[in-house]
Amino acid sequence: MGDMAMAGTKTFPPGIGMTTTMAPFIEEARSHGEVYIEQPYDLYSEENHEAWRRLYARLLPKWEKYANEHFLKGIGNLCLDPERVPRLADVNQFLNPLTGFRAKAVSGYVPAYQFFDCLRQRDFPTTITVRHLDKLDYLPEPDIFHDIAGHVPMHTDKAFADTLVRFGECARTAAEVAQAIPDEDERVHRVTSVIKAMARFFWFTIEFGLMRDSGGKGLKVYGSGLLSSEGEIEHCVESPLVQRYPAQMEWIVNQYFEIDHYQPLLFVVDSFDHLFSLVDELEVWMKDGRLANVAPGEPHVNEEDLKSFLHATVG
Q1: What are phi and psi of 219, to 5 degrees?
Q2: Residue 158, domain member (yes or no)
């Protein structure tokens, strides 16, 4: 890319910054409808690198104490630089040979079906902006630290990676089931409920999941939302205010969640084999119509997510 980064027809000088909600490169890409983009590495400012540096330094001792062993092994396998925002090309050089996954830069929001289908294809949509230095503890939307330091180390584990692919396959099953329903109102109702169920499943496992440790007594963290939050990673394991229940499908898909505070209720899996079996169960429930009327409440299903399933190409 040389010393200038481009989005659409505009060029941006090096060091202009890739701060979340404040990145001209991202705004320009979105204005041209570009979802999948290249990472304009030269645009990261020293403030962006300092944000990464501080986050990594804060989280490392928390990871060593609370993260599951597969995550810790993944951090080592990725050879992340604790001092600088990572280049996705470097991340993929270590990641892809292990599980076939790769981090794929996006300009922001990806509709639900497309996001899940990327997982099926072993692509992980990756945000490339960095949270502001003054807002390291609060994340209004994903950033590169959440995606690369929180999610991607887990993608180096074959069992976990296969689970993500299996979940992506469930999205295709959901679209096939929905498109086979002749009545339009019933089709929309069914899809809305299924998307809500899938979002809850993803939230309470991939984003905020807990796992029993290898001894079967204590708890370790594997959810990326917890792994990328300095405060919540400790809170979720230690606080008496958090309810922790064994993962059961009927509880997960009917439990609403809110994103703007520490989670008061979390679910625990025994292993990645257990998690994989839950994804299989999720697909069975889809086919049997058992996700057609999940409990109301968050998350809200927006029009774009709904259309992404209704009009998905599944042939």
Answers
A1: -120, 145
A2: yes
Number of domains in the chain: 1
> Using CA atoms, how far apart are residues 120 and 203, in angstroms rounded to an integer?
17
Q: Please give the DSSP secondary-structure letter assigned to residue 133.
A: G
User: What sign has the CA pseudo-torsion 18, 4, 86, 89?
Assistant: positive
Give 2's pLDDT tier (boundaries 50, 70, 90).
very low
Instruction: Tell me the pLDDT tens digit for each residue of 119-145.
Output: 999 999 999 999 998 888 766 689 999
pTM for the complete prediction? 0.93
Residue whose pair of structure tokens reads 């990261």 in the numeric block: 44
Side chain identity at residue 218, one-letter code: G
In terms of residue numbers, what domain contains 83? 30-310
| Residue 11 is assigned to a structural domain of this protein | no
User: Residue 290's domain is classified under what CATH number?
Assistant: 1.10.800.10
CA distance 221 to 9: 43
Residues 183-229 have pLDDT tens digits of 999 999 999 999 999 999 999 999 999 999 877 679 999 999 999 99
DSSP state of 122: T
